[in-house]
Amino acid sequence: MSGKPANTDKLALFGGEPIAEGFEPPRWPQPNQATAQRLSDIYMTGQWSFNSSVEQAFSQEFAAFQDAKHGIFMVNGTVTLECALNALGVGPGDEVIVPANTWLATAMAAVYLGAIPVFVDVEPTTLCLDPAKFEAAITSRTRAVIPVHLFGSMADLDAIKRIAAKHDIAVVEDCAHGHGGKWDGKGVGSHGQIGSFSFQQSKTLPAGESGICLTNDDELAERLFRLKHIGYAPGQAQGMAKEGPPTGLICRNYRGNEFQAAILEDGLKTLGERIQRYNQNAAKLEEMLAEAPGARAQSRGRLSGPQNYYGFGVIFDEEPMADIPIDRIIEAARAEGLTSIGPRGYGPVYEHMLWSVPEDQYRLADEGCAVAKTIGTDRLAILSHPHLGMDAAAIVKIGETLIKVTRNAGALRQAQ
Question: In terms of Cα–Cα distance, which of 20, 24, 48 is closest to 259?
Fold first, then answer.
């Protein structure tokens, strides 16, 4: 293996020499002068919204990039999940199975429609929805499942689709972290009935806010478009609706705008190349982690390639690191110069400070959701995706830092 820590004798936290001084990932999002000029040009046209030409072009381009037929652009990646469930007919009293370890929006999409989110645990390798626990949670009221492709992994789509088909359950892929990722050679977001993406500022394809639904189903595509576009059908000009939406399909204004679409269309041109670089650098870090006792990378997912990499997850749940608090591990890594490493994933949604849903409006199918709680909350550190865009020397320094910290587990333990 190439690249070994320059000093494993003493942690910088305790007076040793740091691996590096403040090696930071590049600024994100990265501004682009050509895009800035394009936004100025759009501003001067006065054509900013209402399914404008750039929005239509980007929607088609991104759908093709992820191997889907239709793209329906929206204001953010939360309403995309809500509209996906709505288009599938999910409503009050229905159950929607979601992983316990995800951001709030995955579960809130069901709550917004009066449905019941049902939380199940995640796999300890991928930190994504556990297919066996998904199947065990199914009841006669289950209408949909939302597997989440999380950080640097993908949910087991083959197993989840097979279970869903057996029980006549719709699959909505939450791909908020999934831009550019493929499962078994096909883009994520195109495997289930509907795929949902976020373009919020931290994402690998950002526009500040906005989102998109993907589908290969013509009827669902029209329902999704009507849902986000106050009932208009695709191709109808403002004020020129020819027929209304189906009775009972309550539509909203969830439109994105031309500025967001232009930023995304320009960003899409380099996304594929960037994702390939992320994968190369992640592979190097995985190689180096073999020399870091007690640490392991979050598994990519067995058929992923390329992986999307919203973040690179490092799990410290094996000896000699398993009993050292994650905050202490992070503190030691930051003292070595890796100041931007972050602790923890999301942990169980229903324990999040911002989760305000009454207990009678959701269900825990897997009491305690132990993996989401222990690994997702207490044993996980995250390197945000811009780290994976750094040069080879910086990637080696990151790996050296993780090796040095784990090789000093005894000193960390004694200093608690």
Answer: 48
What are residue 278's phi and psi, to 5 degrees?
A: -55, -45
Q: Which of 55-69, 87-101, 190-204, 366-380 has the lowest mean pLDDT?
A: 366-380
Indicate if the pLDDT at residue 2 is higher than 50.
no
Helices within 336-369 (DSSP H only): none
3-class secondary-structure state, position 273: helix
- Assigned token pair, 106: 């995955």
Contacts of 213 (CB under 8 A, 6+ apart): 71, 72, 74, 80, 83, 84, 194, 195, 196, 197, 224
Predicted confidence (pLDDT) per residue in 194-248, tens digit: 999 999 999 999 999 999 999 999 999 999 999 999 999 998 888 888 889 999 9
Cis peptide bond upstream of 29, omega within 30: yes
Q: What is the CA radius of gyration of the chain?
A: 22
Report phi then psi at 295, rounded to 5.
Answer: -120, 150
CB 324 within 8 A of CB 413: yes
Token representation of residue 148: 């989440």
Cα separation, 333 vs 11, in Å, equals 9
Q: Which residue has the tokens 């058929």?
A: 303
Q: Are 179 and 205 in contact (CB under 8 A)?
A: yes
Q: What is the DSSP letter of 31?
A: P
Is 126 within 8 Å of 299 (Cβ atoms)? yes
